[in-house]
Design goal:
By secondary structure, the chain is mostly beta strands. The chain has one domain: TolB, C-terminal domain (Neuraminidase, 6 Propeller).
């Protein structure tokens, strides 16, 4: 597969999203900051210091919904943020990781009860749905390390990377936008699943961390292709471009040149990505 390198020199890059103007937004988890790469290659700082942003989505009417220690809505014009979800059952959240949104503008996200970049034993977390203007509902417990999330084209399935299990799991989405019947959708051939993206045909593209590849599963969970990248830590991916066949892949390292550190790549996919709905906060 042919791909181009768009940017490098970051730490662990996460939360890639491409807006309608073709601008790529992404975060640097350990070093902090949310950034925006313009089509001409210029990179701007959007949120200077926010650390731990594992998930991000554009908000209807403007702004960004991002994770971190909590879920916030960031206003790009005023550079001010509003808390959306900061605590559960009276206790502050330690952190939220990846996220996705449904057609109602609600956010699905999982929490972290430990530092995933440490060598500490995972403390399982939960899956939540946060509805506008900020009402949270716990949907599932016992997720070892929550990562990528995405809905199927018909919105009847929610895919969820649970990294230490080496599997992408799937839930049935209930009429009230809850979930039921969690089960394994697919096991990774190697490595652990991190971020994921769903394509228009119902396929699931998964960043395989620690083995340097993106794995494309068809809608039945069968491996269609494995795409190698010059990085051990491939962390996330997203579709963009006018026809949504540009696949952006982000990493935490670069095995061709270690000095390049976290790197952003772009390649052409053979199927368009599924648009992800805007949040509505």
């Amino acid at each position: 597969m042919q791909f181009e390198m768009l940017a490098s020199g970051y730490g662990l890059i996460e939360a890639p999203r491409v807006d309608e103007q073709g601008r790529l937004y992404f975060s640097d988890v350990p070093n902090g900051g949310v950034y925006r790469r313009n089509p001409d290659g210029r990179i701007e700082t959007v949120i200077p210091k926010r650390r731990g942003v594992g998930g991000m989505m554009f908000n209807q009417g403007g702004g960004l919904v991002t994770t971190g220690r909590s879920l916030i809505l960031f206003d790009e014009e005023t550079a001010k943020s509003r808390d959306l979800f900061t605590e559960w059952e009276g206790k502050p959240l330690m952190g939220l990781n990846d996220l996705t949104t449904n057609d109602q503008g609600s956010v699905y996200s999982g929490n972290l009860n430990f530092d995933p970049l440490s060598n500490n034993k995972p403390i399982p977390g939960s899956l939540f749905r946060i509805d506008p203007p900020g009402r949270a509902t716990k949907l599932w417990d016992g997720i070892e390390v929550t990562n990528g999330l995405g809905l199927s084209p018909d919105r009847k399935l929610l895919y969820h990377s649970d990294s230490p299990t080496q599997a992408v799991w799937v839930y049935d989405v209930t009429p009230d936008y809850g979930v039921k019947d969690r089960r394994i959708f697919a096991k990774l051939p190697e490595g652990m699943p991190d971020g994921l993206a769903v394509d228009a045909a119902g396929g699931v593209w998964v960043a395989a961390v620690r083995v340097g590849e993106v794995v494309h599963f068809d809608q039945s969970g069968v491996v269609k292709k494995r795409i190698k990248f010059p990085a051990t830590m491939v962390t996330s991916l997203t579709f963009g471009g006018k026809d949504r066949t540009d696949l952006y892949v982000v990493t935490a390292d670069n095995t061709d040149d270690a000095s390049k550190k976290g790197t952003i790549y772009r390649m052409r996919a053979d199927v368009p990505g599924l648009p992800v709905p805007l949040a509505r906060f």
